[in-house]
């Protein structure tokens, strides 16, 4: 089965990892610091905090912002459940806003309709790799005590109007899962424009341990002394994996270029079919494409999905609307709440897209889709 996504690991990655395995540091060590400064440079921020997954990055980001019971987090239903569930874990109330039909990203008008005095965060997702509508969302949160968070699990290396993903929102999270644009096996990171948020994120992922003399309540006890002021967890990314991430970063530009090429090949090959909606790129957006999201609007999504799977094409559907999950349905979230996102989901199929995919693989998928539609 041709997968819908796959990591690209080369000899250099293998060498980077094996070198760390025989060094003094298996976990937090020099490679974590290197990888974090490289990520910060890419994102255009003063720092980055690596963690053990994209889910951990979202949990850490929300904890660093300080959300809890009584706070509301507005997000999209067209995402992986973790964008919402990590806020729920902290006791916040998740409020869903609808998406725009072109990019599948949060619709500022829909967000505007659900903002309240309790909205602490608006969490957009760069669906498929396409950056969120930053101008539209910024305008909404500017005069409030509300931060803009960007779940950039799909979009590392992308930019909008020349600004890199990582500097577009107040807080941005990444995932380094193997199907994503860059991998550390499992891994993720948080970047933020406010150094205080970064500091809180670093403390949270390290069990809340404080060792900075300026921040400790007592500092004269001895060199062993540290203090815990707030709850935290162990989300530390091992040095072994940071070395893999750092080496992968040297090829991110190539990954992005190849993903762009393949994305374009699908769009050219599938053009001119009335039943299909192809993913557009808005002016100013320079996406690192994670998904090729094809939509079929004649009601035959399930049939086309099965047709492709039956022919060895490992297609996916991204995403089941988050509030359809029993976790949220049981809390009273109603189907029909975000009709555009639900329609997007009902029409969507993610076609294979990864740097080592061959042109001939893309052509085979195009032929199968065209054959299915009878043209
Ligand atoms: C993959 C993903 C996550 C979670 O990342 P993991 O590394 O798998 O925990 C969060 N949000 C989105 C949009 C994702 O695609």
Would you mind describing this structure in some detail?
By secondary structure, this protein is an alpha/beta fold. The protein has 2 domains: 2-249, 3-Layer(aba) Sandwich (Aspartate Aminotransferase, domain 2); 252-373, Aspartate Aminotransferase, domain 1. 37% of the residues lie in helices and 15% in strands. It contains 13 helices and 15 strands. The relative contact order is 0.18. The mean pLDDT is 97. The structure holds pyridoxal-5'-phosphate. Pyridoxal-5'-phosphate (PLP) binds next to helix 3 and helix 4.
Compact overview of the structure:
This protein has 375 residues and is an alpha/beta fold.
Structure annotation, total helices: 13
Classify the fold: give the CATH topology of the largest domain: Aspartate Aminotransferase, domain 2
Strand order of the largest sheet: 1-9-8-5-4-2-3
Query: Which value, in Å, is the CA radius of gyration?
Result: 21 Å
CATH class of the largest domain: Alpha Beta
Sketch the topology as an H/E string, one letter per element: HHEHEHEHEHEEEEEHEEHHEEEHHHEH
Number of strands: 15
Number of domains: 2
* CATH architecture designation of the largest domain: 3-Layer(aba) Sandwich
Large-scale geometry: globular
Percent helix, as a range, is 25-40%
Can you list the ligands bound to this structure? pyridoxal-5'-phosphate
Based on secondary structure, the structural category is alpha/beta
Q: List low-confidence stretches.
A: none
Largest sheet: 7 strands, mixed
The CATH superfamily of the largest domain is identified as Type I PLP-dependent aspartate aminotransferase-like (Major domain)
Mean pLDDT: 97
Organism: Pedococcus dokdonensis
Keywords: Pyridoxal phosphate
InterPro entries: DegT/StrS_aminotransferase, PyrdxlP-dep_Trfase, PyrdxlP-dep_Trfase_major, PyrdxlP-dep_Trfase_small
Protein name: dTDP-4-amino-4,6-dideoxygalactose transaminase
């Amino acid at each position: 089965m041709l997968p819908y996504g796959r990591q690209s690991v080369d000899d250099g990655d293998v060498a980077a990892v094996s070198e760390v395995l025989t060094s003094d540091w298996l976990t937090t060590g020099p490679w974590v610091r290197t990888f974090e400064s490289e990520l910060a440079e890419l994102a255009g921020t003063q720092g980055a905090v690596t963690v053990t997954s994209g889910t951990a990055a979202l949990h850490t980001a929300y904890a660093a912002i300080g959300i809890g019971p009584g706070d509301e987090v507005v997000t999209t239903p067209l995402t992986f459940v973790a964008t919402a569930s990590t806020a729920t874990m902290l006791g916040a109330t998740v409020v869903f806003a609808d998406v725009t039909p072109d990019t599948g990203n949060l619709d500022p008008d829909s967000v505007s309709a659900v903002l309240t005095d309790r909205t602490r965060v608006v969490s957009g997702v760069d669906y498929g790799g396409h950056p969120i509508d930053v101008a539209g969302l910024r305008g909404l949160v500017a005069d409030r005590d509300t931060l803009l968070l960007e779940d950039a699990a799909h979009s590392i290396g992308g930019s909008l109007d020349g600004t890199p993903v990582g500097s577009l929102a107040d807080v941005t999270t990444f995932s380094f899962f193997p199907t994503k644009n860059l991998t550390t096996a499992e891994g993720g990171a948080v970047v933020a424009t406010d150094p205080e948020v970064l500091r809180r994120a670093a403390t949270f992922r390290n069990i809340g341990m404080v060792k900075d003399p300026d921040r400790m309540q007592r500092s004269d006890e001895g060199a062993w002394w540290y203090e815990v002021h707030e709850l935290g967890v162990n989300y530390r990314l091992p040095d072994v994996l940071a070395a893999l991430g750092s080496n992968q970063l040297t090829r991110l530009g190539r990954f992005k270029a190849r993903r762009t090429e393949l994305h374009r090949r699908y769009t050219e090959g599938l053009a001119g079919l009335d039943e299909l909606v192809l993913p557009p790129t808005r002016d100013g957006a320079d996406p690192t494409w994670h998904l090729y999201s094809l939509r079929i609007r004649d009601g035959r999504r399930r049939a086309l999905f099965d047709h492709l799977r039956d022919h060895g094409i490992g297609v996916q559907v991204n995403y089941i609307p988050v509030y359809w999950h029993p976790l949220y349905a049981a809390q009273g979230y109603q189907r029909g709440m975000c009709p555009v996102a639900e329609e997007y989901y009902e029409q969507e199929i993610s076609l294979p897209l990864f740097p080592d995919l061959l042109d001939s693989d893309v052509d085979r998928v195009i032929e199968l889709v065209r054959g299915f539609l009878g043209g």
